[in-house]
Amino acid sequence: MSASPETFPGERLGLPSDGRGSIGKLGRRVGALFVDYIAATIIAAFFGYDQFALPPDAGITLFYPLIVFAVLQVLFLPTMQSSPGHRLFGLTLRRVDGAWVGLWRPIVRTLLLVIVIPAVVWDADHRGFHDKLAGTVLVRR
Fold first, then answer.
1. What ranges do the domains of the chain cover?
2. CA-based angle 52:44:130, to the nearest 5?
3. What is this structure's pTM?
4. Each residue of 112-141: b (16+ CB within 10 Å) or e?
5. How far apart are alpha carbons 72 and 126 in whole angstroms?
6. Terminal CA-to-CA distance of the chain, rounded, Å?
7. On the CB side of 59, how many CA atoms lie within 13 Å of its CA?
8. Pairing between β-strand 91-95 and β-strand 136-140 as defined by DSSP bridges
9. What is the distance, to the nearest Å, from the Cα of residue 49 to the centroid of all Cα atoms in its chain?
10. Rounded CA separation 44/66 (Å)
11. What is the helix, strand, coil percentage profile of the chain, to 5?
12. Could you tell me where the beta strands, DSSP code E, fall in the chain?
């Protein structure tokens, strides 16, 4: 189902078309994801991760940044309603009904986000499958 010309992303959810509380646009979301993943890579480096010195049989070591990324998401989303990248790009995560996201929603959302595919499949409201399944929406602060 696609949005008609008279509608905008988030209208079906009762969100404004722009400004505070509107759906976070793609550029902001990608920027926030980039910041969060770079931060996770830097933090992983403090724990011995070196992407340039990995032996061919590195195994789980390749996943250190992704593991740190997931931990950051699960820690920050329930407590701050935003990851560091979200904060930097003026985004916040909330439930569709506007309530606190709770503890389980960030976990489900993050597990699906690290799979990647659910994050690149969107609906007319620009919500990825990871947000739809968790009942969350990423909006502007």
1. 11-51+62-140
2. 110
3. 0.86
4. bbbeeebbeeeeebbbbbbbbebbbbbbbe
5. 23
6. 27
7. 1
8. antiparallel
9. 23
10. 9
11. 50, 10, 40
12. 91-95, 136-140
CA distances from 136 to 32, 51, 54, 131, 132 (A): 17, 33, 37, 5, 6
Per the structure block, which two tokens stand in for 101?
């996201």
Cα–Cα distance measured from residue 141 to residue 135, given in angstroms and rounded to the nearest whole number? 18
Point out which residues pair with 122 in neighbouring strands: 128
CA proximity to 28, closest of 79, 91, 77, 70: 91
In the three-class reduction of DSSP (H, G, I as helix; E, B as strand; rest coil), residue 1 is classed as coil
Instruction: Give the separation between CA 96 and CA 12, rounded to whole angstroms.
Output: 11
CB-based burial of residue 102 (10 Å sphere; 0-12 exposed, 13-18 middle, 19+ buried)?
middle
Q: Which two tokens stand for residue 46?
A: 């403090």
Mean pLDDT by 10 residues, the chain (141 residues): 69 93 93 95 83 66 87 96 97 94 95 85 89 94 93
| Contact indicator for 29, 45 with CB cutoff of 8 Å | no
